[in-house]
Description:
There is one protein chain. This protein is mostly helical. The chain folds into two domains: 2-120, Winged helix-like DNA-binding domain superfamily/Winged helix DNA-binding domain (Arc Repressor Mutant, subunit A), CATH 1.10.10; 124-157, no CATH class. It contains seven helices and two strands; from the N terminus they run ααααββααα. It has helices at 2-41, 47-59, 64-71, 75-87, 109-119, 125-129, 135-150, and strands spanning 91-96, 99-107. Strands 1-2 form a two-stranded antiparallel ribbon. Helix 2 packs across helix 4 (75-87). The longest helix has 40 residues, at 2-41. The chain is elongated, with a radius of gyration of 20 Å. The chain starts with a helix and ends in a 7-residue tail after the last helix.
Amino acid sequence: MADVTSEKGDERREAVQALESSFSELMTVFRRFVSEAAERVSPGMLPATFKVLSVVSRFGPLTLSALAERLAADKGFLSRAITELEDLGLVTRTPDPNDRRSRLIAVTEVGHARLADARAPHESRLFDAIADWTIDDIRHLSALLHALAVGEVPVRE
């Protein structure tokens, strides 16, 4: 019985190592995409600043505190990134109507346009990569990734 348990442990370890390797490949590709997109938005823009712009675009308007929480990032860095984005005309800061001490950060029309242009070269990459997958496989992968991200056991259907 101990050999069976050991074999299962070895199989699990090998499977987890293969998963780590696959994530490493995926993250390398993703980092390259973000770097290229940041450069297209504004030459010299750091990928982290591009990520800030993307998150505000997707979830904004946001306060600095809400943005820091969403990105699990330092408010000092975020403040500098927002200032850079504001100087480029990509975001605005306006008083928060619910708390006049806070300011809401929102992406401008120019910011949305630059993001769209920056993402355009890679826009169909994922769609093309899974073009021959079944919709059920796509949904299953999405569910598995979500479960992994939040630390849950995936629901089996």
